[in-house]
Amino acid sequence: DAGVIQSPRHEVTEMGQEVTLRCKPISGHDYLFWYRQTMMRGLELLIYFNNNVPIDDSGMPEDRFSAKMPNASFSTLKIQPSEPRDSAVYFCASSLIAGDIWLTFGAGSRLTVL
Amino acid sequence: GQNIDQPTEMTATEGAIVQINCTYQTSGFNGLFWYQQHAGEAPTFLSYNVLDGLEEKGRFSSFLSRSKGYSYLLLKELQMKDSASYLCAVRGSGNTGKLIFGQGTTLQVKP
After folding, report:
1. How confident is the model over A74-88, as a mean pLDDT?
2. How far apart are CA B2 and CA B67, in angstroms?
3. Segment A56-79 mean pLDDT
4. Taking CB atoms and an 8 Å cutoff, what residues of chain B touch A33?
């Protein structure tokens, strides 16, 4: 199994530009999570999906952030327009069921907004 | 609200034993997880407790007391490669799979 695959691994952009982060969960996993990690705030849950449907987006910072999951094997997190305070590592994670099974994280996308 | 507290940093000596504590206050409880995260890498699963008591897995053990809102991760026979951040995470009520993470404890193992 290839694990959770994220792209890009690193992105440097200028303030005001649109950023799209991508995630391919582990095949068969029906939960997908987007987390953001910074030194100040640690690992924060942004949004999660169950069977491609957004269940809880209460962690999404503001309207500049949006996430989609058009099918079971692909999700995107978009920031438009980006701001320097969005600089962080964004992790995607998936899990098989909501029971005792833990989350498996992707390698993360490190975003720097200048 | 939800609150998960861990010490920010700890230092220990190679070959020793270290205990990393975690206290939590959450709306409902449906399991506590420990993750290890090396610098620049993704968190990886270490252990899971849902009932009170100790879960042992090789050099690592995790303890839970639900009545006290308390857990600890015990690392024995420390190795240099154990230098990493250790994240405590709690799943609230319901069967949603959603995990709330603490800030993490950065452990430095010295020779």
Report:
1. 97
2. 16
3. 94
4. 97-99
